[in-house]
Amino acid sequence: MLEAIDKAFSQNLKIRNRLIIKSSFENHAKIISTYLLLSELIKKRARLTKRGYNYIPLFMWDWNPHFPISKNLLPKTIR
């Protein structure tokens, strides 16, 4: 299950990077929706592991949003 979450996270991160490279302002809504999906994947992974956010891989910790977004919608790794 954790591998599936990691794979989905990396795929959505690649999609977000492609959208930013194409045109970040035209794809603003799509990028924000991928942010929400990425943050939900981080939260799911934290719930599945025994010690929560202690076992999140580094590539999930290094993710930062390109556009500003409400802190309530982001996982603890970004706040």
If you had to describe this structure to a student in words, what would you say it looks like?
There is one protein chain. The chain has 79 residues and is mainly alpha-helical. The protein has helices spanning 2-23, 28-48, 58-61. The longest helix is centred in the N-terminal third of the chain and has 22 residues, at 2-23. The radius of gyration is 12 Å and the shape is globular. The termini are far apart. The model has no long low-confidence stretch (mean pLDDT 85).
Shape by Cα distribution = globular
Biggest sheet layout: none
Count of discrete domains: 1
H/E order of the elements? HHH
The proportion of strand residues reads under 5%
Radius of gyration: 12 Å
Number of helices: 3
Q: Secondary-structure blueprint of this entry?
A:
Layout: H1 2-23, H2 28-48, H3 58-61
Helix pairs in contact: 1-2
Record keyword descriptors for this entry.
single chain; 79 residues; mainly alpha; 59% helix; globular
In short, what is this structure?
With 79 residues, this protein is mainly alpha-helical.
